[in-house]
Amino acid sequence: MTNHWVDIKNADLVLIMGGNAAEAHICGFKWVQEAKHVRRAKLVVVDPRFTRSAAVADFYAPIRAGTDIAFLAGVINYLLENDKLQHEYVNAYTNAAFLIDPDYGFEDGLFTGYNAEKRSYDKATWRYQMGEDGFAKVDPTLQDPNCVFQLMKKHFARYDADAVSNITGTPKDAFLKVCEMIAECSAPDRVMTILYALGWTQHSVGSQNIRTMAMIQLLLGNMGMPGGGINALRGHANVQGVTDMCPFTANLPGYLSAPTERDATAEAYVAARTTKPLRPGQMNFYGNFPKWWVSLMKTWYGDAATAENGWAYDWLPKPDGSYDVLAMFERMHQGRMNGFFCQGFNPLASVAHKGKVSAALAKLKYLVVMDPLATDTSEFWKNYGEYNDVDPRQIQTEVFRLPAELFAEHEGSFTNSGRVIQWHWKAADGPGETRGDLEIIAQLYTRLRDLYAKEGGALPDPVLNLTWPYRQPTRPSADEVAREVSGRALRDLTDAAGNVVVKAGDQLAGFAQLRDDGSTASGNWIYCGSYSQAGNLTARRDNSDPSGLGQTLNWGFAWPANRRIIYNRASCDPSGKPWDPKRALLRWTGTAWGGNDVPDMRPNAAPEEGVGPFIMNAEGVARLFAPGMIEGPFPEHYEPFETPLARNPLHPDKPEVTSNPAARVYKGDMELFGKADEFPYVATTYRLAEHFHFWTKTSVINAVLQPEHFVEISEELAAEKGIGKGDVVKVRSNRGEIKAVAVVTKRIPVLQVDGRKVHTVGIPLHYGFKGETKPGYITNTLTPFVGDANSQTPEYKAFLVDIEKA
Amino acid sequence: MHVSRRGFFKVCAAGMTGSSLATMGFAPTAVLAEVRQYKLAHATETRSICPYCSVSCGTLVYSMGDKSRNAKARIFHIEGDPDNPVNRGSLCPKGAGLLDMVHSPLRLTHPEVREPGSNQWKRISWDEAFDRIARHMKADRDANFVDKNDAGLTVNRWTTTGFLASSAASNEPSYLSIKVMRALGVVAIDTQARI
Ligand code: SF4
Prior knowledge:
CATH architecture of the domain at 6-232 in chain A: 3-Layer(aba) Sandwich
Largest sheet of chain A: 6 strands, mixed
Number of domains of chain B: 2
Number of strands of chain B: 8
Number of helices of chain A: 21
Bound molecules: iron/sulfur cluster
Structural class of chain A: alpha/beta
Strand order of the largest sheet of chain A: 27-29-28-33-26-32
Distance between the termini of chain B: 53 Å
Largest interface: A-B, 161 and 123 residues
Strand order of the largest sheet of chain B: 1-2-3
Oligomer: heterodimer
Largest sheet of chain B: 3 strands, antiparallel
Shape of chain A: globular
């Protein structure tokens, strides 16, 4: 979230799309209710199902799963056509005025530079025109035909209300009603918030779904505003914190881009990531990359990381390709992996195409499952009849299952999706011989280290030199690790005048103190300052809220820098006055920025200096045109890989742009995409109020509340197929089939799309063969093995099935 | 006498007894003669967080046993933390069932191994588990570690063992796992956050 849970109460309009907060984020949803009751805010829900969020909405619009970009692009077109923009904001805080390379273009669903064979783009023309002064060229009048604003107008003009309704199945009047409600928030004192979750990310165009919405929020001037922003509600309690630590091939902690085979030396690696300002006077915060990275390397390798050896650059692995979870299972399936660790993760149930995942796990030599509970994955080799029909004798994988502690059995910190890091304490030991994750990792590491010290082996150096300063080497405490993540001074730090500002060994106050000369250490720069000399700030429990805006600045610690709303400089006009004085977050006091949040701006940057609020961008402004995206600098509607239409209504005669032309599809998976003639119904997976993923099925009470796998269909489809309430049905995709009980409801709209009727089948995902619930099939037996082009999040939310009475 | 809910616990902790005070509206002094003591009054209250969804609601975890040397704490009640600014004391149907997860019949209590081709689990000690896993890791790493790529560039990667990190783990083990995996040269690292 750019904002946070309590801040939702400051909104005038709440849009829930690509999520269902009333059932999936229930205690967060209360802030929507608060906004409705106290501010008289309106709630709009756009969803393929009439969810419980929709049930309490002021307005609900149905939509076909997988067509959110068309809907939102239509909103952008509406705002531009009807001149419902916050002009001053757009001009000052976005790249609307920037000039783009005249060779950039878009035709028939493709941007310039497409390579069909590689399914990827050469982005050479997706760039700014650069002036002789070394800065990007701009046209503040927004009239130049190559400026972002004009290109944007042209790009979205195709998305008129008829085109949108034809693609999405949303009735035209309902679409226009939503447009009108959104457009009201272009006034500087009206703010919309958007709450989305996996309903947007789990598509082959997931990242662009979110980007399209971000563009709307920029055009309305809602980014940085209390009650505004782009708010990803997200998954697990610590999904945000774990993401921040970056267990990803492509990133080091704090989202630092990790080295690749293209970065031959430390200097080249650092230089390629240290940006230069694209406009005069901008903060260009990524210019600080060397400080963050060197501080990380000093944390990990201590004295062994020196300026001479490029801070031990050689010891960082350089991957030979992608290793996201789909890529990993693809490699495993090809027999290219031997070992695998699942730490509190149940991939057999939660990764797409269970059949492929199961076959892949069977090719491993060893599998290690660390979990407090018996998961389906840990028993992938065991025969559970029709639910997991395998032959253990044929599976040679050696499987270890290590009992881990649950949340209440150890201390540590969780980061909620509002970026607030909160400490939790230990209430009791786990049962039996359970041990904490810290100890399990430390035991494995110290044993390996001893083996390498004794026997040698492949490159022992990074293993032997890894810093391990914990009092009990096999049992590091959460407190010690939290200090390390935050960071400390390795030598006395002095200011320009030579005064010591931080003593050697002291915890740092924040990332502004990090240096690139090896004198500071921080395991994750964005968490720097969360454990300062004042102590563990994540454990703070002062919930006072003097501003009434819900900021609670002394509760826990929000990254970055305890800032609760990021981009908050944009909540003020260019002269430094709040756009909405009744909702004032910050203001320029004449000498500094101050107010009810930690300013996202150099504290003494006077408004006249023109320092832009989007400090992480070298432009200083937000990008309406974003060349970083894989499939285009502007969003475009592409059909899901399994589409009920067999064509993209925007480009009916261009089969290569039916679905995302730049999404990665593996050989064998392309052939497994189902076609509408055999699998005529759109399926979408979803979550229930009573269950959390594949986890609560191990709890008796949750199993009692929602005991059995079901699928949800409309009365019309039920009648067509002769399915009665409570019948057992068989749902098939081109990858497998499941059986479940039919729940026939009025909650699933039947839509008219591109001249035909489209039915939707809703499939909750919480069931499996291990649990207190009735044994069931794993929903992801059905889902396709393809991900979003940018994030590789699998397309769980839109695929094709057939359904019949079992 | 007005006693807030948590104020009431403080009163109890100070040595007064009382069970049905809240429901009967009696002042603490009026219930000294009651028979059954209020269980929460003797509990240790620990602040924690619901590990399910990303609202990360504050919870109060009540356990019996005061954590002294001979006592083994046992969790018997979990409720929303009224101080937490986000959930203000509430929990949803997922979080309200947390106690059943803590005491789930599916909790794992000791390390186990399923040998190749076998149809069952075999109980092993932690020592055996750690030693066997470390041996597997070292054998795989030593056999498959790539120090240079075809172009002669130092790449120092280990591609044949992968690590999937939980989104339910706390920040500290998550960080430590990554620190160790990177040092070993593991490149196949991903997390639930992606999906
Ligand atoms: S109690 Fe419910 S809303 Fe709160 S964190 Fe747990 S699952 Fe989420």
